[in-house]
From TrEMBL:
Belongs to the bacterial sugar transferase family. Keywords: Membrane, Transferase, Transmembrane, Transmembrane helix. The chain crosses the membrane at residues 12-32, 44-64, 76-97, 109-127, 261-285. GO terms for cellular component: membrane. It is a multi-pass membrane protein. Its main location: membrane. It is found in: Membrane. One of its GO terms (molecular function) is phosphotransferase activity, for other substituted phosphate groups. This is Bacterial sugar transferase domain-containing protein.
């Protein structure tokens, strides 16, 4: 049976094999068997470097996730776009760094791209059918009457490639009287996994019934954990204070030291890289609208402590309006619209990172007024046990909130990050932020 990590590994290893297989087939087509070994030796090193770029673009396109592990028009579209981007970047790399690569392939790159495009796409179709094949999917029994269970069932129905099939759903309370029937149903339907609401396991009589199912080789998963596995966010409405006590670590010393070191190094490097752009933006703001170049705003940081956040000013001065920035907001200046669209208004926050008031990665710091408004949300204070960030998991997975309901949805991603924060997750967020800046403008 395939876990999510094993599934990703299988897709990744398949892509590696297809990349090198496509290169081999390309060279056989172009040069034949007689000159194959010489041509393969000349192409192996430069193409191996390019393959790293191809894998990165495929990852940033979410082609290693369940979402695009199926045969439909959207998967074909995203896969085609990623191949086109890879061709463009490969051509740029080969010609810009020709002394290093000692190769400027045109026909070979085109043939290779066509072969990999076909092979890589059909590899995903094969895996999709494999993961939904009989005997591969996990047969699941779900216990409970939570509203999110219907949502999960619908999601799994529409995404069978996730590898889970809800075979049985028990809504009524478990009873000792019905245990023989329950046990028989589990055996008949070859149930391997039981997903149950946490409060059911806390009921002593229900816990004893579930315990007696363990000898059948059943895996027991908490509903909140399963939801988190599927959607990479936490189901706040299903959680209680005990979950936070058990799952949330308030301090990770080694991680925090390493993260602070990386914050300082990366913010210094980015400040140097962006220095010419910073000067240019400052001149544009100064000479196109009245008011200060830098906009200062009080935000709420770690442990609910306020601090001053710095951004390039994007709005007209003395112009009141709602707390949230609306689409086509009349308060934005012409330069401000460009800065907001490109996210360049956030460059001064690198100074906040150097000061230590924010980190590169973390929950987005909210304005004091908004933080006070959002504090009515259950468990909102948990996002403040760590430093806020310039970018974060919630920003990448959900649009900027413009209502209390949307803020609650975004909070589910923030708490997921707080629970699972690590240098590896931070690295993935940085990679996805690059995609967000250049592709997604929400």
């Amino acid at each position: 049976m395939f876990s999510k990590k094993l599934k990703i590994t299988l897709i990744f290893l398949g892509d590696i094999a297809i990349l090198y297989g496509s290169l081999t087939l390309t060279l056989l087509i172009r040069y034949g068997q007689a000159n194959f070994y010489d041509s393969f030796g000349a192409h192996l090193k430069p193409f191996s470097v390019i393959f790293i770029l191809w894998i990165l673009i495929l990852y940033l396109s979410d082609l290693y996730s369940d979402k695009f592990l199926k045969n439909n028009l959207e998967t074909a579209r995203i896969f085609s776009i990623s191949i086109a981007i890879n061709i463009f970047l490969s051509v740029a790399a080969f010609y810009a760094f020709e002394p290093f690569f000692q190769l400027t392939p045109k026909t070979n790159l085109l043939i290779f791209s066509l072969i990999f495009g076909v092979g890589g796409y059909f590899w995903r179709i094969i895996l999709s059918k494999f993961f939904i094949a009989k005997g591969i999917q996990k047969q699941v029994l779900i216990i409970g009457a939570s509203p999110i269970i219907s949502f999960i069932i619908e999601h799994l129905k529409n995404n069978p490639q996730t590898g889970y099939n809800i075979k049985l759903w028990i809504k009524e309370p478990l009873s000792e009287k019905k245990f023989p029937e329950l046990s028989a149903n589990i055996i008949d339907n070859k149930i391997e996994t039981i997903i149950t609401e946490s409060h059911i396991k806390k009921d002593s009589s229900a816990a004893k019934i579930i315990y007696r199912l363990l000898p059948l080789g059943i895996q027991i998963i908490d509903l909140a954990d399963f939801y988190e596995l599927l959607f990479q966010k936490v189901p706040l409405k299903e959680l209680e204070e005990t979950w936070f006590i058990e799952q949330i670590t308030t301090s990770r010393k080694l991680y925090e030291i390493a993260k602070r070191f990386l914050d300082i190094v990366l913010s210094l490097i980015l400040n140097i890289i962006f220095l010419p752009l910073t000067i240019g933006i400052a001149f544009l703001i100064k000479f196109t609208s009245s008011g200060p170049i830098i906009y200062k705003q009080e935000r709420i940081g770690k442990n609910d402590k306020p601090f001053i956040l710095y951004k390039f000013r994007t709005m007209k001065i003395n112009h009141s309006g709602p707390l949230w920035t609306a689409e086509k907001d009349v308060r934005l200046t012409f330069v401000g619209k460009i800065l907001r669209y490109t996210h360049l208004d956030e460059i001064p926050q690198l100074y906040n990172i150097l000061k230590g008031s924010i980190s590169l990665i973390g929950p987005r710091p909210e304005r004091s007024e908004l933080a006070k408004h959002y504090s009515q949300l259950p468990y909102y204070e948990i996002r403040h046990i760590i430093k806020p960030g310039l970018t974060g998991w919630a920003q990448l997975n959900y649009k900027p909130s413009s209502s209390l309901e949307e803020a609650q949805e975004k909070l589910q991603y923030d708490i997921y990050y707080v629970k699972n924060r690590s240098l590896f997750l931070d690295f993935l967020i940085i990679l996805k932020t690059i995609k967000y800046i250049f592709i997604s403008h929400q």
